[in-house]
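Reopening closed ticket. The problem is back. First fold of the pair:
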Amino acid sequence: MTRTTVTDALLQVSRVWQRLAQDGLMSIGTMDEYIEVCERLLEYAHAQQIIFIDEITPALAEAFVDAPGRDRRGVIIETPAGNTRRQRRSGITSLFAHARALGLTKAAPLMDSRSIPRSPRRPSANLQPQEVARLQFHSERGMPATRHSALLALLLAGLTSAETGAASTADLDLTSGTVHTRGATHTLARTCPLDTWGIHVLTLRTTYLDAERPGPHRLVANASSSPSVVQSSVGAGFSEIARRSGLSTMARKVEPRDVTRYVARRILNETGQLSEVARRLGLSSLDVAAGLADLQWNTPRRGGAT
């Protein structure tokens, strides 16, 4: 077998990932994450004087998975988070699986590595209306030059973090008070209503962005960033709002998904229809909608069939 460089292997496997994404068998976000991880693996290998893919040993692959990294501000993180390590491990595993299928290598450096345990899921923050009002108040600092109020308005309309990051001024119909989203990996395309506060802050944000240069404009994220970076940026922006409002502390973490849960409960209370929760949030599963709305349903009766 002709020896294949890490660079050539990554180029060939990247084409496979792109075809899988085009066929809907892999999300674009996952493809971008895998390419980003493996480009960093390439740099890491070259720093160790490793040229060929067969030279990547289990020890080197494990060392890369556990290697220090940097956050989005460039600050060094000595011990990467579990999610980061799992993402690196998944990207490397996929790279070698497809490289073997293409006949580029027989190696599987992470085959015998132990799985990375997940932290226990945090309980929902169970946001209340007065707490959402606090988030709105503190998000308005610096608007419309800052993105925070627009970000929160989109989340309160029922958009996910990925959808919020992808939203642009062209998706808004401020006359009718709606925002359209093309959906994301786990959500469907739909049009979501905006509340009075959302219409107000998004009108200000749109006017500000259009005054800078002709649109359309991304409302809260950089259009040139990858989907994974955009989603992370939305999470970071929301975290700033939650910290300013005093709702996110060492004992209680408030995340964008907590806003989605709040919206799900509100829709259920207003309509009494779980199907409306699913429709407004772009969900194809009523079970997922029920979970977000904190609704216990389809519970087997005692003594009944399971």
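Second fold of the pair, where the issue appears:
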Amino acid sequence: MTMPSRTREAASPPSRSRTSLFAGRADLENDNPMRALVVLAVPSVGLFFFNSLLALVDTIFVSWLGELPMAAMSFTLPVNLCIFATLECVGGGAAALMGRHLGRHDPASARHIARSALALLYLICLLSTPMVLPSVSGAVFGAIGAGGNPELLRLCWLYNLWIPIMLPFGGYTYIANTTARAQGDTLTPFKAIALANTVNLILDPLLIFGFGWGISGAAIATWIARVVSVLYLLRKMPRISAIPVPPLLHPRTDLTAWWGPILRIGIPIALTTASVALGMGGTNRILTNYGHHAVSAWMLGLRIEDLAFNFLFGLYMALIPYIAYNYGRRDLARMTAGLRSAFLLGMILMCSIGAVIYVWPHLFLGLFRPPPETADMAVRAIRASVPSYPCSVFMILVGAFFVGIGQSLYGTIVQILRSIVFRISAAWLFFLWFAPRHIWWFQSVASLLGTMVSAAFLALVLRRLRRTMAPEDKDPAP
């Protein structure tokens, strides 16, 4: 692999003798699959933990403002997930393509993909600009169930007002972190998000309560934290990455060269996240039949589960570059060995974490100081969701496998069925047929049905890969 001399050492796969389990850099070609995934997953878990902490800290402090601001955050969550889906669209497609070309020892194409992805993401960020207008914001949040309360609509707008300003900074961070992970480096993205969370933790109480900015203070603190993260990456990336990611790009037609391949992989990934948001919005509308207590309770349950699923999403982020790199090498045996190792790690971690959350949910809910009625609903929601954790392990890691081989559409279909068709249908049927305390089981029912579909797709894909990646087939994958 030909690389500039100043980045040759940083970008080359680390040897086993000088790589610890906490180094954040793995040899995707030679390391034992379990070891490679653990090395990549440890910082990735930390990254997701701090990323969730960024949202959790906002939620905790906003919950101290009262139940209406808390309900506003619940309604803004699906909208923000749709916005985040745009980042995943470009970042996910770029990660799969960069990993594949690095596996073929083609760093020049990987560098071109990174710049092309950043230009595309900047363009897509402009789509959120209309949300700064109260009329547009009101129409969006009114459509998902917040329209009956003018003050609730105002709070939703105040929180989301800063999202369009924040997105370019978040977009650069996302592409820079994706580039590092494609090279087997998960430690640098972890440090960037850890720094952002430290800044957010300091600024949140100051801006929300000290300056009296309320829910807007939480959004402003997050924006400043993103800016600090970008400054760190601008200083760090030139020294550790063979793929430079300059924040300012000269407009050139060759920047569009990879947009098509990126979007072919990325759009299904974005639809996956968007389907979660749409499913949450539809479920929120059903839960509003029980009042804002139920919506807030589900929001609290989701925030706690976010922390639990950091471990699983850390494995997800570790598995994608591992699969993409070895798919570029056409090593199916190593790919399936990595998937089995990820399953084992995921099941052990999530079953252990789920048991703790199931037994002591009040320990985690105490951070939010919810009213007794909301807390009681949140406990039921959490305990009804924990049995679905093994199903989530399977679906999420199989989804990472699909992304790594550039066939993310299968994971998208599974997620749309689970989040929209199965989840909303189950929630509506439970609302019609059972007492309110049982409605929360819609989560587990939807996950079980989604797992069945995911297993069928995985069997189909593996059968095709065994046929097209036979030892006598030496041609590189397209």
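Update: turned out to be a display glitch only; the data is intact. Residues 67-103 form the longest helix (37 residues). Residues 323 and 370 are 42 Å apart (CA to CA). Please close again.
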